[in-house]
Specification:
Elements: E1 8-12, E2 18-19, E3 22-23, E4 31-37, E5 40-46, H1 57-79, H2 82-87, H3 92-95, H4 104-124, E6 171-177, H5 182-189, E7 196-202, E8 220-223, H6 229-236, E9 247-251, E10 255-256, H7 262-271, E11 276-281, E12 300-301, E13 330-332, H8 333-342, E14 377-387, H9 405-434
Parallel strand pairs: 6-7, 6-9, 7-8, 11-14
Antiparallel strand pairs: 1-4, 2-3, 4-5, 9-13, 10-14, 11-13, 12-14
Transmembrane segments: 62-80
Main location: nucleus
Protein name: TF-B3 domain-containing protein
Length: 439
């Protein structure tokens, strides 16, 4: 291209030209002169053309427009690389307006490339918050605003939030209850001091009937008909919800507590380093396992002297050691964080759970300085209870095929025990296999 006169442009045709599938008469070597005006570029004359090489003004205008468009596109491509286009937020919808992006596949490719570039930019943009150590789902929040744990402390509707709590209970006790046992629960609750948060799970749907008791006004009431305490525990006692409490008691409703004092119980649990415990059971009523029967010769015991033919495969494993029943367990905060994850969503009776609790407090090595599981799970003899064996919740089952309602519940319990045991065994086998371990 040569500019000799003001307002004049010369084009020399150096390659063959074909436009829209129709042959052109423009020949290689032809020279055209154009005049640049306010109304556009107008062809003036062909300086070196054959007689058939002259095209109409409309055709020439189209040629020049295409040429200018190509040159402009090259200029843009050189001046603004892909990263610059990304920073300018030029999306595929904008790029597709250019003639060079008319192909649908090109547009999709451009969109994918742009999206990928934006993601990479966001990941490295220091002005964007991303904290991988935050709880899952909260990575975009600054750590200072993340509140990942909670409690059951009751708060006021007015005043300064920092002045809501005159007392923060250190312990939590839960009872799964029906109205028929309200007087028994009243006696039990009174054995727990103000240092305990009281949480009642109502399996019969009746809650307001408990308002006759003063303590009920400050208790937490949760109601779901015909559900067990392990169903409630899985859904309402998540470790992050009860993290404010040093110990969590998860008790049945049919327990006699005349010889029990919660404050003294806590002292003994701490003294002996028990992570999982229960009060001793009065041997005169309602006992199933020798391990949980109260002894009169000490404060606590963590194992039993096995009798010949007692059936214990290992004197340091359940049910001869590292064992408490599920009727009245108490868990440390750390132990509960593990046990909660072991509770199955669909196995609501908890049968078999007591045989697996030791897995949550086992030392990771036989050479560990930490105490073994059978020394961290025990029965507190100095504070004992009576298991009254009142089948209140058991009667909430459904009579079927001539069977009493409680029999159907019992069958479900036994089935769940077998299912839970199989799940534990299969999970352990899968773990060892995936890690190439032969236990």
């Amino acid at each position: 291209m040569k500019n000799e006169d003001h307002g004049l442009v010369y084009f020399v045709i150096t390659r063959g030209w074909r436009q829209f599938g129709e042959a052109n008469d423009v020949q290689v070597g032809d020279t055209y002169k154009f005049e640049l005006t306010d109304n556009g570029t107008l062809p003036m004359a062909c300086l070196h053309c054959d007689s058939n090489s002259f095209k109409s003004a409309e055709t020439m205008r189209l040629i020049v427009s295409i040429g200018c468009g190509v040159m402009f596109g090259l200029f843009i491509g050189i001046s603004f690389p892909t990263t610059s286009l990304t920073k300018l937020n030029l999306t595929a919808s904008l790029v597709s307006n250019f003639p060079i992006a008319r192909d649908k596949n090109n547009v999709v490719s451009a969109q994918n490339h742009t999206d990928s570039s934006i993601k990479n930019q966001d990941a490295t943009d220091q002005s964007k918050i991303w904290v991988p150590s935050n709880p899952r789902g909260a990575e975009r929040l600054p750590p200072g605003i993340v509140s990942s744990e909670s409690d059951y402390y009751l708060r006021r509707l007015w005043g300064n939030p920092s002045e809501d709590l005159s007392n923060k209970p250190k312990f939590l006790v839960t009872f799964t209850v029906g109205l028929k046992q309200k007087h028994n629960i009243d006696a039990a609750v009174k054995k727990f001091s103000d240092d305990f948060t009281i949480l009642l799970f109502h399996y019969d749907g009746k809650t307001t009937e408990w308002d006759e008791f003063e303590w009920s006004q400050r208790a937490i009431h949760v109601s779901a008909r015909k559900q067990t305490k392990w169903w409630y525990a899985k859904r309402f006692l998540h470790p992050d919800i009860v993290s404010a409490y040093d110990y969590i008691f998860i008790w049945d409703e049919d327990l006699g507590v005349e010889n029990f004092d919660a404050k003294e119980y806590i002292k003994l649990v701490k003294k002996h380093g028990l992570e999982i415990s229960q009060p001793g059971l009065d041997p005169r009523k309602g006992t199933t396992w020798p391990m949980t029967i109260r002894r009169g010769d000490g404060e606590v015991h963590t194992l039993i002297e096995e009798k010949p033919g007692g059936g214990c495969s290992d004197p340091h494993l359940p049910p001869c050691a590292a064992f408490v029943e599920i009727m009245a367990p108490a868990f440390s905060r750390d132990a509960w964080r593990c046990v909660w994850h072991m509770i199955q969503n669909d196995l609501i009776h908890g049968w078999g759970l007591d045989f697996a609790l030791h897995k949550c407090v086992e030392a990771l090595s036989v050479h560990s300085l930490l105490k073994p599981a059978h020394e961290k799970i025990g029965v507190v003899d100095a504070q004992w209870i009576v298991h009254q064996s009142v089948p209140s919740l058991g009667n909430e089952g459904q009579a079927k095929d001539g069977k009493a309602a409680w029999k159907g519940v019992r069958e479900r319990c036994e089935k769940e025990w077998s299912m839970f045991q199989s799940r534990v065994e299969n999970a352990e086998k899968a773990y060892y296999k995936s890690n190439g371990i032969d236990p």
